[in-house]
Amino acid sequence: MELGGDALTLIITGPNAGGKSVAMKTVGLLCLCMQAGIHLPAASESELCVLDNIFADIGDDQSIEDDLSTFSSHLHSVRRILAEASSQSLVLIDEIGAGTDPAEGGALAASILRDLTDRGTLTIATTHHGMLKAFAHESPGIVNGSMEFDQDDLRPTYKFRMGVPGSSYALELARRLGLPSSITDRARELVGDDRVKLDHLLSDLERQSQSYREQIKEVSQERDRLNKLVEVYEHRVKELKTELRDIKRKAVSEAEEIVKGAHSLIERSVKEIRESAAEKAKVKIARENVQRLAEDVAALKSEEKHDELSNFVVGDTVRLRGGSETGEIVALKESMATVLWGDGKLRVNIQDLKKERRQKTSSSDKGHQLYLIEAKNEIDVRGLMGDEAIPIIQNFLDNAVAAGLHRVDIIHGKGTGALRKKVTGFLKTYVRLKSFRLGEWNEGGAGVTVVELAD
Fold this sequence. Notes:
The protein is 48% helix and 18% strand. The protein contains ten helices and 15 strands.
């Protein structure tokens, strides 16, 4: 309920025993509580103003001794109110204009309310006069209000509605309280078509208003539910983004560790092979370590391939795995992609495609490059001096052993035989050999030494 500003006077209509007088009394009691500094049993956003006086004309003060009828007793109270009420006062009048001819009583009530409104007095009045509903609708500063009535159960709901006039529902209440239907039907006929139409109009308005309020309540509840879902969704998306960043950061860290480990493992394996006199157990352990490293790298490649398959989008530049020609994805459907190659299109399983990426290697990555051992099955040292050839041959044999080769050829040429003697002398001290010999006529003869490596 809101009173003040553009709406100084409130006319409350509605059914009997529907709560009109109780609503008006409640406003008066709350104002008195506020004036006395008592906390109000109302919503926290409620606002009240300080009043210089509160006037109330509620109840029936008729008296035979004082020669006062119901109507005249009300007039005595109203006369005092009109004499003393100011723009800072609150006036409460119950059943204004009652107890006399409805037409004259309604007209008198309208005149009283107009006077109080013009002087700026806050006024609440209850009534059953139909003309006052139209008067409130047409008069500035005066508004309608009503108590809600349940159309289905024919019972008041005791809910106040601002800005909407209400019907008295006298005939409906009479029927609910047990009056014969013949009485209520005849009464409805006597009221007249215009009045019945007005009551029906108000009833329809009441019914639609209740329906709209229920729909608004449901929409509001659904909106609150959706807002909560949106909050949960946004929170979850934020968490997933954080988790994704953490996973990527962890993956990069693990990849760096694998690269560092691979580098150090290979260096350590080569060093152990050189220093351990090529013991079979040491070589076997080194091979197993390299094999495990290869398996780790293969696992990473498998994960990368899975990620690539799930990240294809239209417009990606791709090539066939094992091929070199690039094309562009123009359509995707389930596991198949339509790729534009030159002037033609081809449908390909996305598992057979690889994204074409062009990445620059930053200088910071150079310290963690993986150096793979390059093992060959022959080496040519012709033209070198003996002291120059021996370190090269040793490195060649170390790589061959690490790679698991069983036979290699050292090409030293025939010449004077000096280089061959140096090579032979070194091979006698190289314990990783199973045997060595000069080549056959079809292997290069005396210009080649064939070396059998130990397992």
